[in-house]
Amino acid sequence: MPTAFCRPLKLDNPPRHLILITTLLLVPVLTLLTLSFNAHRLNRLSFSCSSRTAPQHGGDCEAIGEPRRPSWACTQNMKDAIPEFISLYNSRPIQNNFGGVLFDHAFALWYTLRMEQPKIVIESGAFKGLTTWLIREALPAARIISIDPANRARTLRGVEYMTGNNFTDFASIDWAAKGVNAQDTIVFLDDHQSAFRRIFAENKHSFTRFIVEDNYDYLKGDNMSLKWVCERSRKSLWQGTVRDNFGKNKTSQSWEQHLELGERLNSSFRTYYEFPPLASSSMTGQTRYDELHSTPAIVTDRAFFDKHLSRFDKRQFAGYTHLCFAELLAAT
Ligand SMILES: C[S@@+](CC[C@H](N)C(=O)[O-])C[C@H]1O[C@@H](n2cnc3c(N)ncnc32)[C@H](O)[C@@H]1O
């Protein structure tokens, strides 16, 4: 802009010592305010961490609003827990769980639950019962309610099963009548239903904490995942339809409607965190997910991989679909 059009306001200069005193007073006050505001926004638990996971590439859910990650999102701590988890995983009662969670998500589920310590876990999608067992191992004293229309699960003492003839869909259950307090609960969604639908339209009981297993990348998989809804940059790939319920339901959706859902999601979440894959795909050989759109892996050094993870069948690393921990500010 030409300077001739800029007329500076004429102010009498205040005395210099007044400016200095005001600045000295304001700086610490503003710093304290900023720190306490950020602390309030961070999750309850606090962990020392020497290597926080880097912000995700392409993870639009995380790109909007900081901080989105939970305080326990610390790669080094996760890495340190891997040897303990391996002993547990080797003792799993269901060795072949293809069709259900494999190594990456088994670790992610176990780790997240240990960090969050809910008193109640609702599992929607039990399959053979491996994740139910992992939930019990992570939280020995928790109340567990496991839901599945099929009746394939190996049962565990103390778990409340709503399977087979006792099945009722998550959306239709009277959770208050069951004595379930939303604040104490994490809902683990592994039922191939759209997590967006589950968390918003079907969340009558106002649950706020969710672990989402089928969190497929944009346009991938058989249901509209949270990650899918968050996508903003890959418009050119938009196909105009969304899938749900194992891909059986298809609905038209415009890009503008998609963006609206994304806005709702982004303004509703306090935390959104895609748990990292166990190890880089250069070592695991996995080809299922795209590292460009994923949280960086926990294990990146060959020596650690060779010592702890290389003995596992490579197919164990083929089940990563961005399992995430999502926490609503308040149920909407
Ligand atoms: C991928 S498997 C779950 C895997 C399991 N969590 C594990 O890895 O141990 C998906 C399960 O969802 C179940 N399912 C289908 N519709 C469902 C619904 N409406 N509510 C809950 N589960 C459902 C299927 O019967 C199937 O067992």
UniProtKB/TrEMBL annotation:
It comes from the Eukaryota. InterPro entries: SAM-dependent_MTases_sf. Keywords: Membrane, Transmembrane, Transmembrane helix. The chain crosses the membrane at residues 18-37. One of its GO terms (cellular component) is endomembrane system. PANTHER family: DNA-DIRECTED RNA POLYMERASE SUBUNIT BETA. This is Uncharacterized protein.
